[in-house]
Amino acid sequence: MQEKILVGHKLRRLRQSMELSQTAMSEILDISPSYLNLLEHNQRPLTVALLLRLGNSFDIDLKEFAEDDSAALNTSITEIFTDPLLADERVPRREIQDMITAAPGAARAIYTLFQAYRKVRDEIEVTTGDGRMMTKVNAPVERVREFLQSQNNYFAVLEDAAETLCEKAGIMFQGNSGEKTAMENPLANIANHINSTAGLRVRVLPVKVMQNQLRRYDQHRREILLSEALRRPQRQFHLLVQYALLSQQPILDEICATLDSDDQQTVSLLKVTLAAYFAGAVMMPYDAFLESAKNLRYDLDLLGRRFDTSLEQVCHRLTTLNASHMRGIPFFFVRVDDAGNISKRLAAAGMQFATHGGTCPKWAVHKAFRTPEKILTQAVELPGGQKFFTLARTVPPLWSAVSEETTEFAVALGCELHHARDIIYADQIDTGKPKNLEPIGIGCAACERMDCTQRAHPPIGHELRFDGHMRRAGMFDLDIN
User: Fold this and answer.
1) Residue 268 near residue 252, CB atoms below 8 Å
2) 69 CB contacts (<8 Å, ≥6 apart)?
3) Residue 446 gets which letter from DSSP?
4) Which residues contact 447 (CB under 8 A, 6 or more apart)?
5) Of 202, 214, 211, 215, whose CA–CA distance to 398 is shortest?
């Protein structure tokens, strides 16, 4: 069944930005003003025919316009009411949804205001007993994540710069199947190109010399030093990151300027993140990688072997294939450790992660540690009805000394369920049967599944009950009246 397109707030915002009355826009679209009013209030879905008519009449991106972002906004607003400051308000999810439907602009303003409040509150947290300041939220990390999502994790200017480097360094060739693929060992070509054009020498040094450093730039000797502990894909990645920081400064500064932040930590983090984006774009050039991804039906292992990259690098790159003229599947991405802490995340395709706290314990990414290097598949449904197909697998540790504990991570990649037909891992799952959908949430405090036995926190709007004469499965006995 085709999902209904309910984007009334976008339609109303478009009309208001064009300074058109409902009567004027309805005449342009050849519909009645009353029907337009129903569309703007989500009382009628936007038909494909009308969407195409909008595209012909106004300068809009049809794919972006047709995406319902109300679920992400619902998650953001719901999380606000999990804050202890508002715990006594007990605002039910139904009221939150009604507010978003009726006034999405006001809802976004509330979210922006609360984020500003939270930032100020965290900056003036009381000190600990020994006088040190407590920092509850990693503001630079969250700010950069928000910026990447606002840009749909796609930067055309970096893609163009990466393509230029690929051509000049000669790191592409035509495969036997007619597809453009990465050459066998581009690392040497890149190192030679950097040396000949920028006068930078690339050296791989023993761990005894580098110690716990994986990459270092020696400015005086003009050398990029890489640790022998890095595998070949990692060496190539770190070399390209350092090269981007040295050679792509004007582009990086231009993008960072759009962040509109005076916080130097945030700007520095964004610059390194963009350099990593550039590195991924060089290792997996857009057109060649997208063509291969489609032909291989998003086989993560084969993509890694074809482009000589790691699984995590492949997953990262898949989240960036968002050019308006040639799109891949819109994936979201998350990386967690075996304690459930999130170290990387990128929301997309209607999936929204909680800003604070971990993910749902029923999500397969947490089970990946039980079966290392095995891809786990899962079809899931959120409380709001959004359906996704997800993949999860552990990734090899970067490197650690023998005397140190090895850090383990698992990554998860996901997309809207209707894209599953294009993914090879979904062939064995009948995604059309509701019984095959695992009910999960975005986080316990914002999840309304009252019967979940793995809940770690009570949901907002519900009080706990304590009855010594009865014990239910699960940690909490909730007031559901």
Assistant:
1) no
2) 350
3) G
4) 360, 383, 441, 455, 459
5) 214
What's the token pair of residue 233?
Answer: 């894909």
Go through 79-89 and write b for each residue having 16 or more CB atoms within 10 A of its CB, e for each that does not: bbbbbeeeeee
CB 172 within 8 A of CB 285: yes
Token look-up 């009628």 returns 44
Q: Can you list the positions of beta strands (E) in 256-385? A: 322-323, 326-327, 332-337, 342-346, 376-381
Q: Which CATH class is domain 332-443?
A: alpha beta
Q: Which CATH architecture has domain 8-120?
A: Orthogonal Bundle (1.10)
For residue 224, give the H/E element and its range.
strand 223-227
Residue 229, classed as helix, strand or coil, is coil
Quick: pLDDT tens for 362-374.
888 889 999 988 9
Residue closest to 328 by CA, chosen among 145, 159, 150, 143: 159
- Tell the burial category of 285 from Cβ atoms under 10 Å away from its Cβ (0-12, 13-18, 19+): buried
Domain ranges for the chain: 8-120, 149-317, 332-443
Please give the C-alpha separations between residue 355 and each of 73, 79, 320, 348, 352, in angstroms, as whole numbers.
Answer: 12, 8, 21, 14, 9
Sheet containing 215-218: order of strands:
201-205, 223-227, 215-218
pTM equals: 0.73
Q: Cite the DSSP H helix spans in 284-320.
A: 286-295, 300-307, 311-318
Q: Give the phi and the psi of residue 432 in degrees, each rounded to 5.
A: -85, -10
What is the tens place of the pLDDT at every residue in 111-170? 888 877 776 666 555 444 444 444 444 678 888 988 998 888 999 999 999 999 988 887
Q: How far apart are CA 181 and CA 164, in angstroms?
A: 16
- Residues 419-461: tens digit of each pLDDT: 999 999 998 877 667 677 888 877 676 676 777 777 766 665 5
Helix (H, G, I), strand (E, B) or coil at 352: coil
Contact by Cβ (8 Å): 345, 145 = yes
Distance from C-alpha of 346 to C-alpha of 3, rounded to nearest angstrom: 24
3-state secondary structure of 447: coil
